[in-house]
Design goal:
The chain has a four-stranded parallel sheet with strand order 3-2-1-4, sandwiched between helices. The chain has a two-stranded antiparallel sheet with strand order 5-6. 30% of the residues lie in helices and 20% in strands. The protein is globular, with a radius of gyration of 16 Å. Strand 2, helix 2 and strand 3 form a beta-alpha-beta unit.
């Protein structure tokens, strides 16, 4: 089970969110319910949401004390700057990015961390994603099949299809 300790965490999960009250609970629970043998810090950057996103984050933080560190920006920074801000706060050996309207399936983080630890030649790892509607009905797969390993030239030719 994930727990925070005084030592530097193995993984910093950086969650960027803005007006995602319909999704942020599933997003955070998807992280909180990951099981792995590593210390994890969950950093949430609320980019001055005007809906109930912040209240939902605070509610979940109270249910899981000490597990979520919330940064509530008073002024909207934008998605990129919000993510950069979270990276600057991160203390982990690895960084995982998650948007507030996405969520992880069980075991995702454990598999990715194991891959990175066993393949030091790789600097990043990604997973495909499924696309669902509000009723959680499957609409399709996010991207076509790609080689298991790629270099920067492949990514430049194909464009950014990576799901984090």
């Amino acid at each position: 089970m994930m727990e925070m300790s005084n030592k530097n965490p193995t993984v910093s999960v950086c969650v960027v969110t803005y007006n995602q009250e319909k999704y942020i609970q599933d997003c955070l629970l998807g992280v909180l319910l990951q099981t792995l043998d590593a210390d994890v810090e969950i950093l949430v950057g609320d980019d001055a949401s005007t809906d109930k996103t912040n209240e939902i984050i605070q509610f979940i933080s109270e249910k899981y004390p000490g597990r979520i560190k919330l940064f509530r920006h008073e002024k909207n920074l934008g998605g990129c700057r919000n993510y950069q801000f979270l990276i600057e706060q991160a203390r982990g050996d690895f960084i995982a990015h998650l948007d507030g309207d996405d969520y992880w399936l069980p075991g995702k983080l454990k598999r990715q961390l194991a891959f990175l630890e066993n393949h030091s030649e790789c600097v990043a790892v990604y997973a495909n994603a499924v696309v669902i509607n509000r009723e959680r009905a499957l609409l399709g797969i996010f991207t076509d099949r790609h080689p298991d390993t790629q270099d920067i030239n492949y990514l430049l030719r194909k464009g950014n299809y990576l799901a984090h």
